[in-house]
Amino acid sequence: MRKRLTDSSNRAAWGLGDQIFSSATNFGVNILIARSLGAASFGAFSIAFTTYVLFLNLSRAVNTEPLTIRFSDVDHSSWSEATRRASACTLLVGLAGSIICGAVGLIASGDLAASFLALAISLPGLLYLDLWRFAFFAQGKGHRAMLTDILWAIFMFPAMFWVLAAPDASLFLLVMAWASSAAVGGVVAAIAWGVRPSFSKVRQWLRDHRDLTPSFIGELAAVSSAGQLALVGIGFVASLAVVGAYRAAYVLFGPLRVVFQGMTLYGVPEAVRVLRDSPQRLRRATRVGALVLALVALAYGMALMVIPDHWGEFALGETWEFVDPLVIPFTIGVMGIGLAMPTYIGLRALEAAREAFVARMIVAGAEVAVTIAGAAVGGAVGAAWFGRTTLFLGSGVWWRSYEVRLREREAARAGEVAEPVS
């Protein structure tokens, strides 16, 4: 038991550490480009980066999530074969994205064209590296994912500084240095572990997991659109200043999202392992995880509540005056996300893609509608209290969906055990 807990803790540490490192490198890239090339070039890069994130999430929905859900804690040959198929499909998603980005780059002009043309060349490599991160966590080897990300950084930052040192530094070359370095990390991982893409099995991969991917893609659309719709709605019924305050509060809680994402990276493969041992163990782990994440969110929010005003003004300038009243409702909201996150992970382990999609649509839809209504009634404060309280209450939707599917699994497991006896 002690060894099992130690192994699980180590995997959790690698998951959180890798997510922090990955987020930190992305932050560093954004800061480097913003400081080096100015606002216009950074704006063009930001649009390209957002496009990259869109295709990244699409690739995860189609490839990496099925890989971690169905091929965690399996024998090495099964994992290798699944990784071959998923990596091939990932590269094809990247190629499709490259065609789209290339078309945008040819239509656009200036820095925007440069960003999209560079992304068109390097997008498959970016997605390929991300696939390997998830594959290593599915294998229970989080340290390999961290090493792969470190390898990317070792190639990336020197290349970017070399470009900046040249007299003809351009956004195109900077984006190429950032993105193409990812391909190096992915290729090294593939060679080191002898797992090459298997393009002949892509159709079979898509067919085998077609029960999961539509719901995952639907979730992606819901997550991507909910926040944007809420901001647009706030701007429509209130003002741009209210939008700015609400968005600034959201950014202020960004570090918590890094923690939650790190737990997801580790949590889904871990939940698959626990579920195969015992559904009851998964329920206990989910409850403990929900309590821990909610307390972490509460502690973070309380820290923001008591910081001196001049600290907040240093971070957000004059915007802090409008953000300060939003800290309490946003804390309630992230506590709700913390309570729901382990059930999201549990539904993934249970392969309950449709239930997770329905829960996501209910909570996201309610959040958007109630946030806009709150903004109409009380500006930024009203939007925060209405919308974030909805997120907290929405954790109950996630828990209900999770408990229904977990009880079904427990009943099926009990039937399997009883059948030989009868």
The main sheet comes to: none
- Secondary-structure-based class equals mainly alpha
Helix percent reads over 70%
Low-pLDDT stretches are none
Q: Using only CA atoms, what is the Rg?
A: 22 Å
Please report which band the strand proportion falls in: under 5%, 5-15%, 15-25%, 25-35%, 35-45% or over 45%. Answer: under 5%
Order of SSEs, N→C?
A: HHHHHHHHHHHHHH
Which whole number gives the mean pLDDT? 86
What best-fitting shape do the alpha-carbon axes yield?
Answer: globular
How many helical stretches? 14
> What's the structural domain tally?
2
Describe the protein in words.
- The structure is a single chain.
- It is globular and about 55 Å long.
- With 422 residues, the protein is an all-alpha fold.
- It is 90% helix and 0% strand.
- The chain is built from 14 helices and no strands.
- It has 2 domains: 2-198, no CATH class; 213-410, no CATH class.
- The protein has helices at residues 2-70, 76-107, 110-138, 142-165, 171-193, 202-208, 213-237, 240-252, 254-277, 279-306, 309-316, 320-323, 327-349, 353-421.
- The two termini are 32 Å apart.
- The mean pLDDT is 86.
